[in-house]
Structure formats: C-alpha cells, structure tokens
Amino acid sequence: MRPSEPFEIKTISDNTGFTLIEVIIAVSILAIGLLGLSAMQISGIQSNSLAYASTQAHHLLEKQMEMIIHADYHARGISDVSNNTGRLDSITHMDHFNTDALGNDVDLGKFNLIINVAEHTPVDDTKTIVVMVTWDNDRKVRKLSCIKTLTG
Asked: Is position 73 within any domain?
C-alpha cells in the first residue's frame, strides 16, 4: 500500500455471511453426528443393563451352590425327581423349579432358579447337580449355569 492512497473501509453491507445452503449442510452434518452419538448411548445403556442382570444372576447362582455344598446329601431340593440324566442343562426338563437346595420355594423376581440332579452319575453314590438361573432379557432367555458333583 502506498501512503498516498486512502484506506479502504468495509461497511457492514459488504459482509455476505453464510448462505442458506451452507447452513442446511452444517445442520445436517451436526444432526447425523448426534444420531450416531445417541445410538452409541443406547447401546451402552443396554450393555450396562445386561451386565447388571448377569451380575445379579451370578450372585444368586453362587448362593444356591453354597447351599448345595452345605446341604445334606439327601436334601429334598437336590433329589432326582424327573430322571433327566442325559439333559441336565435343560430348562424344560427339570427336577426343581424356583426351589432352593433345601426344597423351599423361592421368589427371585425376574429370575428363575432351576436345579437338575442326576443320581449315581458319574459313579454310584454320587450326584451331579446343575444349577441354572434364567431370565428374560429383551425377549431372549439368558441362562447362567454351574455344575457340582456330590458324594454320598
């Protein structure tokens, strides 16, 4: 710039700003990003819910296994009543449903307790016991199980 030239002053009317199409494109990009973020948030909430239910089921399963370990070998809740030796992991052919190792009825809310017993398996004077906790999670039945062999 030469000293003899006057300074050029821009007025507000010279500022053109954003066009409508630029604003629409920017808002669209922002909306797509927010939709992706909300989908990720929903997935995280569902995973957290499943983890919480699995932890509760694991706690119930441990409690029942402790009862079985300390129960009498001939306790009512760990007797083979359906002769389901080949299907100990079945949730349809069961020996005990919502009863604990002592044979008492239990109410576990949304969880179900299943105890299947096979006597004289794998050898005489033993019981193989499978304890399962099931629950419905988003229209899918989830199952957590544990197996124990007791000797008479």
From this structure: yes
